[in-house]
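BUG: 3D viewer hangs when loading the predicted structure for this chain

Environment: internal workstation, default settings.
Expected: structure renders.
Actual: progress bar stalls at 90%.

Input used:
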Amino acid sequence: MTNTFGYTGKILRVDLTTGKIWTDDTMKYKDFIGGEGMSMKIMWDEVPAGTHPFSPENKIIFGSGPLCGTGVPCSGRTNITSLLPSNPDHSVSSSHMGGYFSVEMKYAGWDLIVVEGKSAKPVWLRIEDDKVWLEDGRWVWGKGMFDAMAMISSQMGKEAQIAMIGPAGENQLNLSVIRTGASHSAGGHGGVMGSKNLKAIAIKGTGSVKVAARPEELMALDKYMMTIIGANNQHVVPRFPHPWAEYTASGSRWTAKKGLYWGAANPPVETGECYPEDMQSVGLRTHKGFQDLGAVAEKYTVSMGGCAHCPIRCHSQVRIPQLEERYGIDPNVSNTCVGYSGPNGIMFKGTPDLPGQEKGEQSMISKTLGSHLADDYGVWCNYGQMGRDLNWTYTHGILKKVLPADEYASISWDLLEKGDPAFLIDFYDRVANKKGELWHIADGSYWIDKRWNLGEEYWAYDKNKLWSKLGYPVHHANESQSQVGALVSCFSNRDAQNHSHSNFGAAGVPLELLKQVAAEEFGTPDAIDGPMDYTPMNQGKANFVKWALTRTMLHNSLTLCNWMWPMAFSPLKSRNYRGDTALEAKFYSLVTGIPMTKEDLDRAATRTFTLFRALTIRSMGTADMRNKHDQTTSWVITATKDKNGKEIPQFTKGTDRMTQEDMEKGRGLVYKAFGWDEKTGAPTKATLEALGMPEVAAELAAKGLLPA
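Structure tokens produced before the viewer hung:
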């Protein structure tokens, strides 16, 4: 280790079976940047194909990156990598959470935490700088996350940061989360911690992160970035008219305006006009209570919360007295986006307002109640898919058929039918605690189809939003940047979690400006289409796909928030609304002292994404990714119909559907852009070796998994 600026230089290793705790060297993985990249390399080296996610031999890795803990804006994410229980091949995947956990990890002196084995009894991992030991966890096992966090904090102190599972993770549900803080969750790997009898990791650090640059240099770049940053999802155009704004965009999360308040603050805080040159009002731009819970939530909003080093603050912190009055739970709730809408999706019959309620009040109550319950139990909604799966299996009579009659009769379906959020209390208890047969709704779509025989109609129904027969849902796919979003979604082992392309296309500037920047980044203005006005696949779109895939991998490795990055656009007319897509490299170079261009970092991210592809090939036991992995469900390539029942042909204005032929062309162009085999979509020996991974090529070749 000659240079550890930005890095601590140390990886914490823990074997729960033996109780052994030791230190590894971060820098031997430096070619993979940090976070997700380094975690993928460890998984390749140490977890063989065929390992079950819940076996002691599996590892779970908590990763930070070199920018985390340095003050770089929006750099507080934690990457969690392991085998994914809900994936049919148990392929490797990553989940992500915000908050302050990864920053505290860096302050304690650790870049990554790698956990393997299984404890004989419940434990929690205690980290105080370089002092690390296992504590008896039996006293917090079985507790909900809110109580258990308070209990551990009583021992560690309120400044400690904790990553934890609830009963859902303890019971090894496929769809369970790891949570930190009041509202930051990583979906999918909670059961892995549960299988290891690991309730929590609690960290308290008193150190700092060394930075190569002089403080004034880093501060100058921070200030420069603040002239580029927009609102949540890097929306750089406000939703409502402002005297300074040349443009508005109806879908923008820049929701601030005169007369819109954090109404429950003391005193209430007006969001106001938020001139883009005013750095002090950046945190007022995004009113997520208004965005996620509706206009009624304005008077219940106390403030916005968020993650370390983030000026945007995208988690609404609300106080809903009705939660305490009706259900006896804490009225203080914090969450964002699908953290509210996913649990509320369980109430698929709707939540109509009751007499005397304000418009939207019952929906707000349902969302906040569901958020509290899901967070406390640690149940993952699978990006809203759990609600859609409940809808399908209930309305099609499947649950009545597969559940024992006494169990079905004991469920308060009448509450669901009339839109009473109290249904959620019983539902989450049954699911998280594995009661009866209903809990299998948390196995994930692939597995419940196998168990309950849902049939092709289930997969083909567009409103189920199932993207792939691997069992994961749409997450910014064909509805987001045409073939770009569609193809991005084909390369994941779970919902795509990719916001690089959606942030770019939904920045809010007019299409003409989007096309200008697309030409600068991807070689042609035709890389981007207007909404529901798609053109056939072209090379520029393939370049856009590769950029989106590698930039997201880069952000998860540095670790930056991909819900905000990349900074392709700016709210400033004086910049002609241009952002700066070299910012990641500029920050990396200043922080680490290792000069990197954006092309250098993109190549490093390409290396990591190619390794991720190799891991998927190894777990699936086939090189034929084109046909075995990257295909969509049938609705994606089925023409929609207008209100008169007439088909709307693909590539006609008014539809977002793809064609199989065009998607196949797109797959080939993206494979070619990565240097992969165009027939199979698998990395070639030459590409793997060119990216510095001859050992990966050798292992795939030995298993017969390299393309011919």
